[in-house]
Design a protein that fits this description.
InterPro entries: Acetalactate_synth_ssu, Acetolactate_synth/TF_NikR_C, Acetolactate_synth_ssu_C, ACT-like_dom_sf, ACT_dom, AHAS_ACT, AHAS_small-like_ACT. It comes from Amaricoccus solimangrovi. Its EC number is 2.2.1.6. This protein is an alpha+beta fold. Helix content is 31%, strand content 37%. The chain contains 5 helices and 9 strands. It has helices at 14-19, 41-51, 81-93, 124-136, 156-170; strands at residues 27-36, 56-65, 70-79, 97-102, 109-120, 139-143, 147-154, 171-176, 180-183. A hairpin with a 4-residue loop joins strand 2 (56-65) and strand 3. The longest helix is centred in the C-terminal third of the chain and has 15 residues, at 156-170. The chain starts with 13 loop residues before the first helix and ends in a 7-residue tail after the last strand. Residues 1-18 have low confidence and may be disordered.
Length: 190
C-alpha cells in the first residue's frame, strides 16, 4: 500500500489539510494597519505574510498623516478564524505598527476599488461595451477607433462582475488598485 494515502472522505488538498486540520471554514478579512511611514516597514509587513505562507489578496498603502509620518496599509487576506487571529496578533507585535483593525468584524465598513479596463472591439461589441459601462457607471477615460479604457470605482464584487461581463467583448488588459476600506460612522475603531 502507498505510504501516502487519503482516507475515505478526506480532502485531496493536502496543503489545506496541514494548515487547517480541523476543517474550519476559510474567511476573507479586510485589515487596516496603521504604521510608521519609514523605509522597510512595508517589507516587514509583507515578510510576515510570506514567511508564514499567508496569502494577500489585495494590498494598498499610502501616507495618511504627513505630520505624524504615518501610513495606512489595507490588506485583504483569507484564512481560518484562527489564522486571521494569528495574523492580527503577529502584525500587532511588529515595532512600526501602531494599530491593527479588522474591519470585517469590528462593524460596518465601506470598501472600494478603482479599476482601469481596456476593451478592444468594433461594431456591435463596441456598442454592447458602452451599454454595460453605462449600467455599471463606468467612465470612458480613453478611446480609439478600436478600443476603450473604462474607469470603474466600486466594491470589489462590482469590479469583478464588470470585468467578467466585458471578457467576451474583448478585455485586453486590467489594472486594479486594490481595496481601500474605512469603518462607517463618526469614529475611528479602537
Amino acid at each position: 500500500m502507498n505510504a501516502l494515502h487519503i482516507k475515505k472522505g478526506a480532502s485531496s488538498h493536502s496543503a489545506y489539510d496541514l494548515r487547517n486540520p480541523l476543517g474550519d471554514q476559510r474567511e476573507t478579512h479586510t485589515l487596516c494597519v496603521l504604521v510608521d511611514n519609514e523605509a522597510g516597514v512595508l517589507a516587514r509587513v509583507i515578510g510576515l505574510f510570506s514567511g508564514r505562507g499567508y496569502n494577500i489578496e489585495s494590498l494598498t498603502v499610502a501616507e495618511t498623516d504627513h505630520l505624524g509620518h504615518r501610513s495606512r496599509i489595507t490588506i485583504v487576506t483569507t484564512g481560518t478564524p484562527a489564522v486571521i487571529e494569528q495574523i492580527k496578533a503577529q502584525l500587532s507585535r511588529l515595532v512600526p505598527v501602531h494599530q491593527v483593525n479588522d474591519l470585517t468584524v469590528e462593524g460596518p465598513a465601506v470598501s472600494r476599488e478603482l479599476a482601469l479596463i481596456k476593451v478592444a472591439g468594433t461594431g456591435e461589441r463596441r456598442v454592447e461595451a458602452m451599454r454595460l459601462a453605462e449600467v455599471f457607471r463606468a467612465k470612458v477615460v480613453d478611446t480609439t477607433l478600436e478600443s476603450f479604457v473604462f474607469e470603474l470605482t466600486g466594491a470589489p464584487t462590482k469590479v469583478d462582475a464588470f470585468i467578467e461581463l466585458m471578457r467576451p467583448l474583448g478585455v485586453v488588459e486590467v489594472a486594479r488598485t486594490g481595496v481601500a476600506a474605512i469603518a462607517r460612522g463618526g469614529f475611528a475603531p479602537d
